[in-house]
Design a protein that fits this description.
The structure is a single chain. By secondary structure, this protein is an all-beta fold. The chain has a domain of 79 residues: 3-layer Sandwich (Rieske Iron-sulfur Protein), CATH 2.102.10.10. 0% of the residues lie in helices and 40% in strands. Strands 1-9-8 form a 3-stranded antiparallel β-sheet, with no helix packed on it. The protein has a 3-stranded antiparallel β-sheet with strand order 2-3-4, with no helix packed on it. A hairpin with a 5-residue loop joins strand 6 and strand 7.
Length: 124
Amino acid sequence: MSLQIDDYKNMKAVSTKLCELNQIDNNGSAAFVAKRNGKKESFIVIRKEHNVFVYLNSCPHIGTPLDFSPGRFLSKDKNFIICSTHGALFRINDGFCISGPCVEQALAKVPIKIIKGTIFIITN
């Protein structure tokens, strides 16, 4: 989702604050925990240039968290999300697995809105 400043009137769905945009370095990643639909979940947030991508922090292969150290999800070249358990590689823009035991599966993408520098997850 491209970074945009929306106003509160455009938010038709229920949303939950996830984090501030400035908490994620450009071309970096971070992990955050928030409640979504009454359940506490862990989220991956990746910022690439003018885009922000949010996924559940769960490998589609066996459901383990992906970070190899807290909030670190990216390959050394910062072009892929990497699973710390199996080394699976996922494209950042769509979460699709291109290598590893979950090839052709994808991370669970989380819809977001960015309002005045704050990232909100759409909860329903």
